[in-house]
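Fold Annotation — chain and its backbone
Encoding — discrete vocabulary of local shapes
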Amino acid sequence: MSVKRLRWREMFDGVFLGVEPRVLGLVVLVGVGAGLVGAGYLLVLHVLQTVMWPTEWSGAVGFAILGGVGLFAGLVTRFAGSPGDVELLVDNIHVSGSAPGLRRLRSLLPISWLCIASGGAMGPEAPLVQTTGSLASWTARRAGLLVRESRVLTIAGMAAGFTVLFGAPLGAAIFALELLHRRGLQYYEALLPAVLGSLAGYAVSVAATGAGLHPVFHLSAPASLRAVDLAWAVVAGVGGAVVAVAFTYLSTALRAGARRLRPELRPVVGGLLLAALGLASAYSLTYGEQQINRILDHHGGTVAFFALAALAKLLGTSVTLASEWRGGFIIPLFFMGACLGRAFHVVVPGTDEAVMVAACMAAACTGVTKTPLGSPLVVSEMAGLRLLPTTLVASLVAFMLTSEVGLIHTQRERDVVGDDPERR
């Protein structure tokens, strides 16, 4: 090898933490593929929503639709196999560096499409990330990559999946890495490849869907951040931690109750419970992305109004999760945080509303997912605001307060054995 080429290789390894050029090429390929797959997933979901979304029906019809979707989910799971979940994905990445096989997508895709499109209170983030992560792992196996390289590629696929939904490339990349652990990012060598895959997926999804670069959440930009806003961010962090603890323990209790039922009956019972909750409050249905902006634009809301909206989403999402409907709880947690932030502002009008809302959103998500860097980055990017300092403070407070509380039980320390370069 020539001196010039050797120097180039040393510089390359220094920039990308020793990741082989071939793996980086696969990262870009996986990012592009994830962008296309993600755009296709969301397209199918939007088509189904035009027919099944709760705005298309009301009253007792919901029992037939949601109960029927639950029955469909139970039957597909029984005959096509379990679709898996995020806990299984996280565990596999630690052990083998790869996501579960593509066979699980046979049940995951149809079940998640119908569960989300009919108004289940969890969003597309988890199924989408499971799908893109599984495709990335399949690519790694086909390419004969080692465990460490497979892990890098799988994480890049997950990051690209998050980006398609959130439109926040940097936040999505860090979120995908932090999600694997309970105490911060540890697979450092995957950071820049994850960002690269995330950007590739983002570019393709924007081109495929025609989505612009405008913010997703309609928060009014603060004139400037004040020193007191950092103190209020600590308060928001405590509030977000309370939301996270409530969601974790309520979901755990409902899961324990659901296990008393036959597996194929759990989604049916969950669908009927969701229909009943929907009669009490529309906020207990759907994953809340559109509802967040309605909460932010709602003028004259009282503390009771925002508290009841958050409670409705808390109950709906917990029932959805416990009854094994498929979806993710990140956006519902954002919704609960937005309600909490607006309620804080009503109680203390002197606070900056945008600061409190963004901080509470990030804190509530961090408390459950243990992503103290990814959550504030995602919220800040989705809101298009310069609120990173306060959202970061709130997330760190929530992270510390909920360190002993966990819902994703397979989050753990880095698997040193799995880093053995000789293992495949």
